[in-house]
Specification:
Elements (H helix, E strand, L loop, with lengths): L2 E5 L4 E6 L4 H9 L7 E7 L3 H13 L2 E4 L12 E6 L7 E2 L1 H4 L9 H8 L1 E5 L12 H9 L3 E5 L2 E5 L8 E3 L5 H11 L5 E5 L5 H12 L3 E3 L5 E5 L7 E4 L4 H14 L1 E6 L7 H10 L2 E5 L2 E6 L8 E3 L11 H8 L5 E5 L9 H7 L3 E5 L2 E5 L8 E3 L3 H13 L3 E5 L2 H4 L5 H6 L4 E5 L2
Parallel strand pairs: 2-15, 3-14, 6-7, 10-11, 18-19, 22-23
Antiparallel strand pairs: 1-23, 1-24, 3-5, 4-5, 7-9, 8-9, 11-13, 12-13, 15-17, 16-17, 19-21, 20-21
Helix pairs in contact: 1-2, 1-7, 4-6, 5-6, 6-7, 8-9, 8-10, 8-12, 10-12
The structure holds ligand EPZ.
Length: about 425
Amino acid sequence: MDRIRIVGGNPLNGTIAISGAKNAALPLMIASLLTEETLTLDNVPRLADVAMLKRILGNHGVDCMVHGKRAGQNGLSGETLDLTAGAIVDTTAPYEMVSRMRASFWVIGPLIARMGQARVSLPGGCAIGTRPVDLFIEALKCLGADIDIDGGNVVARAPRGLVGNRVVFPRVTVGATHVTMMAAALARGETVIENAAREPEIVDLAQCLTKMGARIAGAGTATIHIEGVDRLGAARHSVMPDRIETGTYAMAVAMTGGDVLLEGASPAILEKPLQVLSEVGAEISATNSGIHVRRNGAGLSPVDVVTAPFPGFPTDLQAQLMALVCRAQGTSHIRETIFENRFMHVQELARLGADIHLDGQVAIVRGVSRLRGAQVMATDLRASVSLVIAGLAAEGETVVNRVYHLDRGFERIEEKLGGCGAAIERLTA
Ligand code: EPZ
């Protein structure tokens, strides 16, 4: 298994090109199931989760063609995919696949909407929380689907098609908002989703569906209106920049000191994290080509943060922020409200000398003057990158084990950080 070796202490200086967003690319690729015509997606990140989803979609009958390099391209920019679900030959998503990539459960919406049936494995447990799918099931039932649980599978039927309805989520859920929006796009009549997720990835999907011929209004707000249509068609869409990758590198610069341009990043979708970073002591400025992050010499200040659905502070940046404030001059409080078990990185950061105390869903982080390198273990995607950030500032050598977690969501991380002066390398088994 690959590991990443870091020798800390180098400031970061230079430019990092931000990739397309994993959490936008996945639902966008799944949307290809809604039409027999070709959906072309540009700026698709080269990630393990994307590769896994190509296999899962292929299992349903989707042809996936990767465009070759074009003149003027450096081969480092995102992929362009032609996804064509000309005929869906299998409406089953098996456990072996769904258990490896939870978001593949989301195929259930387009499969019911287009084919009137789906048999999708329940995703099972996850390192960061129980993550049930009850709200997906309730929403699809609202649209007229008959749903049973059989042998660990969700078996859904709507032989006469789905019918628009009012769907009210008791809590904000990104995944179920994506899936309900996709299913409702082909349902008869109007669907209104209330207490919908407002994440930028929802807006990106709605924009793509609209290019395919869907009628959607209100994406990005708590109430989304979808007027169903009989069929959707071909479209071309570029995946939005990854705001979590952007926030991660911004925190790395704040951690090590330095001056980095995050090229292609969009400040408008990162307001809260950038505000928190300014409070910690980084200088943030928006430019025509992205976001500039600097920190020179000034110490780090503690902060109190509560994770929340967009536009609140994203849970997917919680671990990275925790690593950063490990070296703040004072005590920070980080409350996690989205997932019940998202502090797996705490004991690993403690191995590097961090002083963190957990009180229920609150992490109390007392800043220390120095971290020291050690062997650490990645436990999930975002926890793994928080260990990389801490390793960049720790004295001596840090080795992060099980980096397959990292490869699920960060494209070429050692190249991007190494290109800015970090002493980082991948140790292949
Ligand atoms: C998406 O997960 C993201 N994944 C997550 O990013 C992200 O942390 C999360 O949204 C919150 O922002 C992708 O986009 C692929 P939710 P999702 O449904 O859709 C509970 C990463 O690191 N819930 O908004 O699964 C759920 O358990 C990943 O890239 C139910 O109870 O998250 C959680 O506590 C990790 N029943 C809360 O709602 C349901 O049916 C929010 O989950 C659905 C969700």
